[in-house]
Design brief:
By secondary structure, this protein is of the alpha/beta class. It is 35% helix and 18% strand. The protein contains 8 helices and 9 strands. The protein has a 7-stranded mixed β-sheet with strand order 2-1-3-6-8-7-9, sandwiched between helices. Helix 1 packs across helix 8. It is globular.
Length: 236
């Protein structure tokens, strides 16, 4: 996640999904907050906010909250937290900024960062991890590289889902075989992941649901039906 993405269409679906499936469960958000970086225009998919008839009815309260944040030019995870659209969620928001950390110390720094993040959401029933780019295999994960602060290795994703439901964000790539093959590739490697939600509009992304209990699975089905035409459930 980056502050400048707040209010983007990706936010609308991610928080819409979390609001739909959490119910009375205690929600924790691991922001994986990366300093604003990347090509100009990233996070600019906010045109949906002017298309009320197409989008607003899907989650009116969330739509209006994100519209206000964007119109006020107050795009940050802090403003999203203050909006109250995620109820009493617990937020783990220490920035994943290794620019001031010496190269040889970055691996240990990442381990400490993850331990702190995991501890902050330890009491939660559902945890959402929001890395900027998404999943990466443990063997390809190099915390010494600044760009890998945008990724979540399988080991971290697995640990967040131990004994509870975890939802892992992944920005679909140009992997050979296409997006649905990519989705199934990661589902096979995430323990307890038998269902995912694949989102199409503007920029393709997937939400992998790990250890979904019956209630979460049921609410996810309802969400997918309500948002039909914009995304689809993928099953193992």
């Amino acid at each position: 996640m980056q502050d400048r993405y707040t209010g983007d269409v990706g936010d609308f679906v991610k928080y819409g999904l979390l609001r739909a499936i959490t119910g009375s469960k205690r929600l924790g958000i691991a922001w994986y907050l990366h300093p604003d970086a990347g090509p100009a225009g990233d996070g600019g998919h906010t045109e949906y906010l002017s298309q009320h008839e197409r989008w607003q009815h899907l989650d009116p309260r969330l739509f209006e909250a994100l519209k206000r944040i964007v119109s006020d030019d107050d795009r940050s995870v802090g403003s999203l937290q203050r909006s109250g659209v995620l109820g009493n969620a617990t937020f783990a928001g220490k920035r994943l900024d290794v620019s001031a950390v010496r190269w040889r110390e970055r691996r240990d720094w990442r381990l400490r960062w993850f331990k702190e993040t995991r501890n902050q959401v330890a009491h939660c029933d559902v945890v959402f991890a929001d890395p900027d780019n998404g999943l990466v295999s443990d063997t390809r994960f190099r915390p010494e590289r600044k760009e890998d602060a945008k990724r979540i290795p399988l080991a971290e994703a697995t640990a967040l889902g131990e004994g509870r439901t975890a939802i892992i964000y992944h920005h679909n790539s140009r992997r050979v075989g296409g997006h649905l093959l990519e989705v199934r590739y990661w589902m096979k490697r995430l323990p307890g992941c038998s269902i995912a939600y694949y989102w199409r509009p503007w920029s393709n992304r997937t939400f992998f649901v790990v250890n979904a209990d019956a209630e979460v699975a049921r609410q996810l089905e309802r969400f997918a039906k309500r948002w039909e035409g914009h995304g689809e459930l993928v099953r193992q």
